[in-house]
Amino acid sequence: MANTIKGTIKMIGETNQVSEKFKKREIWIETEGQFPQTVSMEAQQDFCSELDNLSEGDTITASIEIRGRVWNDPKTGKDRVFNTVKVYKIETDF
Fold this sequence. Notes:
The protein is mostly beta strands. It is 0% helix and 64% strand.
């Protein structure tokens, strides 16, 4: 599932090397409109370096993919769903 989201960058995190083969980097943007929302997105792998060219305060349009996975909590036996908003393309609006 692919979508776009437009907003102003509020925070760009450091690259986090999760494992030998996987890295990710968090970015927050605040949407526009009557009820602005702050959305956390995640860049992964080689796309992490694309965030180096951005700054807090920049207005961007991000192409995103919403991912979800089910996890069974071994303590309770109940399933939970975790979602990730993955950004794979960013256009700056100057």
